[in-house]
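Changelog note: in this version the structure field was regenerated for every chain. One regenerated record is shown below for reference.
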Amino acid sequence: MALTWAGSYTTGAVKAWNETMAADSYAPSGLYGVTQVASGYSHQAVLKSDGTVATWTVDGTGSYATVPSGLSGVVSIAAGIDETVAVKSDGTVVRWGTSGAGAPPIGLDNVSKVALGFLHAVALKKDGTVAGWGSNEYGQLNVPVGLSGVTQLAAGSHHSLALKADGTVVAWGRNDFRQASVPSGLSGVVQVVASGNNSYALKSDGTIARWGQAPQVPSTATNVARLSVGLKRSIALRKDGTLIRWDYTTPGTIYSISGPKGVTDVAAYSDRVVALYDLTVSHTLSLPVVVGGSTTSLKGKVALSYPQPQSLTIPLSSSSSAALSSSVSSVTIPAAGWSATYSTTHNLVSEDSDVSLFAGFNGTSVNATGTVSALRPAEISFNLSSIQGGLTVEGRVTLNASPRRSTAVSLASSNSSLLTLPSSLLVQGGSSFAQFAGPTSEVAVDTPISISATANGKSASATLTLLPRPEISSVTLSKSTVFGLQKFTGTVTLKTAARYGGAPIKVTCAEDDLVVEEPIFIEEGGKTASFVLLARDVPTDRVANVQFASGYSTVGKPVTVRALKASSLVLSTASTVPGGTGTGTLTLNAIPSVNVVVPLLCSGSSVSLPASVVVSAGQRTATFGFSVAPTSTDNYVVFSAIRHETFTVRALYIVQLSSLNGILTTCYGTTSMTGKVTLTYPAPAGGMTVALSMIGAGGTIPASVTVPAGQRSANFTFKANDVDARTYAKVTATLGAVSFNKLTLVRPLGPYEVAWARATPDAPNADLTVIMPVVVDQDVVVTLTSSHPDLITVPATITIPAGSDRASVKTTDKRPTTDTTVVIRATRKGVTAGVSIWWAP
């Protein structure tokens, strides 16, 4: 469709400046369709394209600015001191004002243009001749005889100028400043201008000739296309469309005039200026095409080629508001503004439609036409245009724009048995697409499938080709026998390189005795892929058949999978004591590729150990710690590691106290006994200390006794005290929670027997022997007494040496005179032993 998404309208507009070259505040607003401008002493006038005239005074007063009612059909105008002249299309002249040349003569017709002086007027007739009226005080109405071929006239205060078709100039009237004396040889003139006592001629080369009273034209006033001269300043329109001026108060200096581009006419009388320029009103759309009902923002813009002093309200309308309309009924360009924008509303359409938006200005519609396009699927795309059967294809339906509201899109497959698609998609509002995925089936040969998408009654289609998968050439495995939880590697090779989308290899195994660690996938263009298999933790040895499949080809491989079990359980010590600690080491029959948890048990509750031990991946062994309660009474416990209902065991002996011996039930003071503690098992490294204690004052013992490492028993000494009376002593040996004790009676150590004998009957003295009940450990002193010391005399004491149970001394004997019984006694610690002797004369 041919689009006019930007339209414009050009009309004549005016720009007026006051004596200080500021914008003239009395210039009427909304003055458009102007074709000519004119400037008088105190007013300005414009001719509009409809043949009407508008005027205004520089101070807002004056009847000369009041246009006659009903005036129309005007083709040219002129302005003077306080008067205005309009030439109508029928060649007649209408004049109004308060002074100047006055009314034109009755019957004047066939006029094309008029020039007004101070008190006179000259009229150019359509046949190229000149007529005049008003004051002729200086001969300003004395048109040279035979003057013809005139194309333009100008009038000064009291003189007149005529431009002929051959580019020469004729002047008449007042000439006191030589204003009517045309320079000799002047030619190539395209415009004549007169003001006051001055005359000007604009030449075709853009230069200006001057004669009369005014100062010379600045030398830089060149490239001029149009000239207007007032009493105090001159205005020139250059061929490039710019305006310049020079004032009589600053001769030789040119000033640029800031104003609109496209100036076509300019008029000055005194020091006020009015310019006619082309004002272009453009109406554009931000896009030539918009999809109806989409999120695309379409804006309209009304712009001016030059800002206006007043705000402009532009009405807006549409040729089809159902499809496209402005969001407002009008748009306002602010005063001194260049443009105004507005938003549009576009709706869903079933067919593409050209719609015009109209911007009204000066009775004319400025049109901008755009296309409201129907919302439709623009594209169906896939992640792959060709894909191997059996893979899932991913696709996207893209609309030609993002709809404001969610839009349903229906999908269809030409072969739903090979490609299954969702029946519809929903493109969310604000998005331009929706994605889909569909599983495909394996094929034996290349198979094209057509997919269509439909939305808003419009459809788009695309083709997807399903490819057969390549066959497997071979499969190699790094091991044929593995243990459970071990990994091993392999390589699969295709007969031909994988096609678009690559080649997935399906791996299966009965009871999943072997599983692939990561899916096997051969990239497009490749033929081989490496993989890792993990053996399942089988309870018993078995043969697993693993199958590798691609498309319609399958390769099987047998692998023996052996059960992963504990092969040994070793303790850091074979025996320990209550309160002891140690470690255990579990060894598997193979190195696993993943962590393996092995449960642990112990037969005795007095031993603490973890519920399980973890053999780390890549290791065969794992160590754990255990401890025996200080209060344990167990003699031994059994550790068990359980793996697949197989127990691996190890016994731990706990050394306990088994007996206390060597402490007799009775003993004598000062004597010693050797006690003995005995263990259930040899003492562990470092030996084993048994605590000893005693109740009673019968003797002394050490605080403990240590059984050397590797030995089962150790001795200690019980030393009986030298008691004065029978005393009991209880000896206790303790190890952990096990104790043994012995009770012994300590008797006072005294003489057991006394013997007295002569070596021969006639021997003068006898031997007295004191015998103790036990061999003494130290020297023991025993007291001796005799009942008849006068007959048998004994020493006061006798000492039993250490290491002996007896001692002997000599008695001194004297025969009695009569038979006498003599008793000799030995006493110690309240214990007395004696001997009776029948002693005869």
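Spot check on this record: The chain has no helices and 74 strands. The first strand starts at residue 6 and ends at 17.
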